[in-house]
Amino acid sequence: MIKFLLSRLLQAVPVLIIVITATFFIVHAAPGGPFSADKAVPPEVIQALEAQYKLDQPVWRQYLGYLGDIARGDFGPSFKYPGRSVNELIMAGLPITAELAFYAMIIAILIGVLSGVGAAMRPNTLQDYVPMTLAMIGICMPSFLLGPLLVLVFGIQLELLPVSGWGDIPGDKILPSITLGTGYAAFIARLSRGGMLEILSQDYIRTARAKGLRETTVIIKHALRGGLIPVVAFLGPAFAGLLAGSFVVETIFQIPGIGRFYVQAAFNRDYTLILGMTIFLSTLIIIFNLISDLISIWLNPKLRDEVSNG
Amino acid sequence: MKEISLILNLSELLKKSINLLKLVFLAQLLLLSASCGDSQTNVEKGNINGTLYWGNGTEPQSLDPQIATGVPEHHVISALMEGLVLKDRKTLLPKPGVAESWDISDDGRVYTFKIRDNARWSNGDSLTANDFVWSWWRALQPALGNLYAYMLFPIENAQEYYEGALTDFSKVGAKALDENTLQVTLNHPTPYFLQLLDHYSLFPVHKETIEKFGAADERGTRWTYAGNLVGNGAFTLDEWEINRKILVKKNKNYWDSDNVDLNEIVFLPIDNMVTEERMFRAGQLHVTSSLPADKIAAYKEIDDSPMRISPYLGTYFYRINVDVPHLQDPRIRRALAMAIDRVNLVEKITKGGQIPAYAMTPPGTMGYFPESSLQYDPERARKLLSDAGYPNGKDFPITEILYNTNEGHRKIAIAIQEMWKKNLNIDIQILNQEWKVYLDSESAGEYQISRAGWIGDYVDPNNFLDMFICEGGNNRTGWCNEEYDDLILKIAPATKSHKERLEIFQKAETMLLDDMPVIPIYTYTSIQLIDSAVKNFDSNIMNHAYYKDIYLESLN
User: Within this chain, do residues A36 and A108 fall inside the same structural domain, yes or no?
Assistant: First the structure.
C-alpha cells in the first residue's frame, strides 16, 4: 500500500513539471502583454514595469527563476493587482470556493445517490424514468442558465432567498450551492444507477436474497458498497472540477472565490496569477484523484488484492 | 409473498430517503427563517444608517492614485482623497477643494494656491503645500509606472524631468512658497489646468505612510491596504476584502466633514452587468455602474424609472489605417464615413440614447460645439467612391473591420457592414479578437479598419484632438499632418482668449474630418440604475460622483 502511494506521488512530479512548463511558455507566447492598455503606455513606463517583473530578461532565465520561486512556495506578485501576491489572492478566494464546492458536493451526493439507487432498484418503471429524465435535464442544463432561473424564481419573484453574495446575508449560500451541485447530482445519479444495476445482477446479491435477507439490508449492506464504486471514482475529479469550475457560479452570484480570478487573470495576461492558479489547481486535481483511488481500493476487495500483491 | 415484502422494504427505503431529504430541507428552512427575521434589504438598511451601496464594476487594481487607472478605481479614490480643487457636481466647474482660493497670473502661466488651514490628513497630520510638491515628484518617477504622468506635463519642465532630460526636480514648476502657499508654473497658459487638479494622478499622497511601506517610487507596496492608507478625502478606508467589497467610512478629520452626510459607502465589485441589475432589483444596491443594453427598453416603460441616461464625455469611432493601399485616398475614407446612418444605428442597435457623432470631440466640451460637414449622404458617398476609382463599388478590395470580442461591438460592426454594402456596394468582413490581442494588432497597425472608443480624461477639446498628432501614442492610424500638429501643439496653447482657442480647435477638427483617418460614430452615454433615495447625485458629462454631496432620503 505504501509502495502504491509512493509511486503515485512520484508520478505526480513529472506531471506537475510538464504542467508548469507548458503553461509558462504558452502564457508567455500568447499575444498581448500584461501591460498593454487601451490608452498608449509610454515607453518609460513599459520599461520600468518590465524591469520590475523581470520581463526584460530572456524567457529561459525567467523560467528558471520562476521554478526557483515556486520551489519555495512563492507564486510571485500579481501583475494586474500591484501590491497583491498570487499566494495572497489564492488564499483569499480558496476558503470561499472550497466551502461552495463542499456544499455543492453534499447536495450532489444526496440527490444523486438517492435517486440513482432508487432508480436501479426498480429499473424501467416510473421510479426509474422520472429521476433519470430529470438527471438528463440536470446534466444538460448549464449553470449559467440554471443560476439566473433560480434567482428569478426564488430571489426576485418569491423573495425567499438573496440573489447574490456569500456569507453577507443569511441564506445567500443556498442558491449558489444548488446551482453548482445540480449538474453533478445528475451525473452521480446516472453513475450510481449504472453501478447498482450491475451489482444487483451479481451472484452474491442473489445469494444474499436467497438467504432471505430483507431487501433494505441487501441494498445497504451488500450492494451499495460495490455499486457506488463508480461514484467514488468520480468524486475526486468532481471535487477538483467543482473548485476549478466554480467560475460561472461565482460570477452569477458575485462570490469572491478563486474561480473569478482564474478567468480574469487569463484576460489580463496576469502571467504569475495564471501560472499560480494552474499549478495550484493541478496539484489539487492530483491529490483528489489519489484520494478517490484510495477510497475505491478500500471499497473494492479485488483492487485491494491487486495493490497489496502488486 | 416475496414480492409484497420487497415492495414493503422498498417503500421503507424510500421513506427513509424522503425523511433524509426532509431533514435537509428543514435545515435549509431554518437558515431561511433566520434570514426572514432580518428581511430588510441593503437599501432599506442603508437609508436609515446612511450607508450607500454602490455597484462599482470590477475589483480595483490599486488604490494608489499614482498607479491606478480606470473608473472603479477612480470612484473609490475620489472618496478617499481630494485634490486642490473640487468640481461642481452638475457643471464640473472648479470649486475650492484643499485649496480655499487661487490666483492666476495675467499671462495665465502662474497659479498660486492658498491651501486651507484646516486641511488635514485622515490621521490628523496637517496637509501642506510641500505635500503636493512631494506627491507630484512621486507621480513623475518613471519606476512607479504611472500611466497618467502626462496629466502633469502642462507643469513647467515636468515632461523633461519625467523623460530624464532634466534631473533636478527643483526646476519643475511646483514650489511651496510656505506651508499654505503652492505656486505652480506652467509651460503655456493651459485653460484646462484647474480641471486636471481634480484628477487622481494629481491628488496628494501621504509621504510618511508611503515611505513606511517601501521606497517612494516602489510599485505595489502595502500602503494602500485598509488600516495603512492615510488619505485626505471625505472618507477613510475601513475594509478592503478582495472581490467582495470595499468599505469606506466618514473621515472626521476632513476639513468639510460637517457637510458630509453619508456615514459609509460600500463599493461592491460586480463585473457581471446582469447580476448587478438583479441585485439592484433585490434592493442590494443603491446605484449600478451600468445596465445591460437589452434591459433599457423595459426600464423605459416604467413610471419613475430608476434608469438614468446621460451624455458621457466619450466618442465611439472607427480608426482607419491610412497605410492600407486602398484606404489611402481621403475620398474613400469620407465615402465610408458618409455611408453610415448613425441615427438608425443609435435608435435600432445601441438603443441607449447615444448621440450620433459627426466630429471627434463631443459637442459641448468646454463650450465647444464642433461644426462638421460630415452627414449621412449615400448619394455623395457613392460619388466620392466613384471619383476615387471604384464606380458602384466595383473591384473595391474586401475590407476588414476589426473589433474586440463583445456583443455590442459585433452588432454595430454588422450594421455598418450592411450599410456599406447597401450604400456603396462594397464587401466588408468583420473580425473579432480577444481584448489584448486586439490591442496588439491595433498598435502594430495590423488592421484595416478598427473599432475604438475614447473617454475624456478632462473636459477640453484638446483631450480629443491631441490624440491624432503625428507622434501621438493613441493615434495608431498612420495619419500625420504637420499643419495639424502645429495647431494643436503650438498655436492653440499660445492663444490669448478662450474663443480664439476654440477657433483653432475647430480648424484642427475640420482638418481631421476632411482627411478622415477616423470615423466618428456616436457620443457615449452613461446608463445607470439609481434608487430614488439617493439625492444630490446629479449627472455630469464625466459621470463623476461627488460623494460628499450625496445624501440618502429615508422614507421611514
Answer: no
Contact B144 A160 (CB under 8 A): no
End position of a domain, from candidates A34, A65, A96: A65
Q: Is B93 exposed, middle or buried (0-12, 13-18, 19+ CB in 10 A)?
A: exposed
Instruction: With respect to residue A77, please indicate whether it lies within any of the assigned structural domains.
Output: no
Q: Both A117 and A221 in a single domain?
A: yes
Give the residue among A19, A225, A117 at the shortest CA–CA distance from B13. Answer: A117
Contact list, B453 vs chain A (CB under 8 Å): 38
How many whole angstroms separate alpha carbon A241 and alpha carbon B550?
Answer: 45
> By the 8 A CB rule, do A306 and A4 touch?
no
> CB distance B31–A174 less than 8 Å?
yes
Task: Report the C-alpha gap between B341 and A32 in whole angstroms.
Answer: 34
Question: Is-contact A19 A278, C-beta < 8 A?
Answer: yes
Query: Which residues from chain B sit within 8 angstroms of residue A92, using beta carbons?
Result: 241-243
Q: What is the CATH number of the domain that holds A221?
A: 1.10.3720.10
The one-letter amino acid at B8: L
Which residues on B lie below 8 Å from A93 (Cβ)? Answer: 242-243
Assess whether A120 and A54 both reside in one domain.
Answer: no
Are A192 and A74 in contact by the 8 Å Cβ rule? The answer is no
Same domain, A174 and A212: yes
Tell me whether B224 touches chain A (CB under 8 Å): yes
Domain match, A162 and A32 both? no
**Do B443 and A40 lie within an 8 Å CB cutoff?**
yes
Virtual torsion, Cα B183, B187, B191, B195, nearest 10 deg:
-60
Q: In sequence order, which residues have a C-beta less than 8 Å from that of residue A80 and are 6 or more positions away?
A: A34, A264, A265, A268, A270, A273, B61
Residue B3's pLDDT band, with cuts at 50, 70 and 90, is very low
Q: What is the rounded CA–CA span in Å between residue B250 and residue B122?
A: 10
pLDDT digits (tens, 9 = 90+) for A101-121: 999 999 999 999 988 988 888
CA distance B266 to B248: 7
Distance (Å, rounded) from C-alpha A147 to C-alpha A174?
11
Pair (A180, A277) in one structural domain: yes
Instruction: Give CA–CA dist B442/B474, Å, rounded.
Output: 10
Could you give the maximum distance between any two Cα atoms of chain A, in Å? Answer: 85
Type of residue found at B536: N
Identify the H or E element spanning B518. strand B518-529
DSSP secondary structure letter of residue A245: T
**Domain endpoint, select from A10, A31, A65:** A65
| Location of C-alpha cell 435608435 | B347
Spatial separation of the C-alpha atoms in residues B439 and B450, rounded to whole Å: 10
A103: in domain: yes
* Residue numbers in B near A79 (CB within 8 A): none
Cell numbers for B464: 480629443
Window from A276-280, A299-303, B397-401 with minimum mean pLDDT = A299-303
A48 three-class SS: helix
SS3 content of chain B, % helix, strand, coil (to 5): 40, 20, 40
Same domain? For A106 and A177 the reply is yes
The pLDDT of residue B11 is above 80: no
Q: Kindly report the pTM of this predicted structure.
A: 0.88
Q: Is residue A81, in this structure, part of any structural domain at all? A: no
When divided into structural domains, chain A yields a total of 2
In a domain, A259, yes or no: yes
Amino acid at B450: S
CA angle A153, A159, A165 (to 5 degrees): 90
Assign B92 to helix, strand or coil.
coil
Same domain, A254 and A305: yes
Q: CB–CB of A39 and B69 under 8 A? A: yes
Containing structural domain, residue A183: 86-309
What is the helix (H) or strand (E) element at residue B247, kind and residue range? strand B245-250
What is the per-residue pLDDT across A70-98, written as a single tens digit (0 to 9) for each? Answer: 989 899 999 888 888 999 999 999 999 99
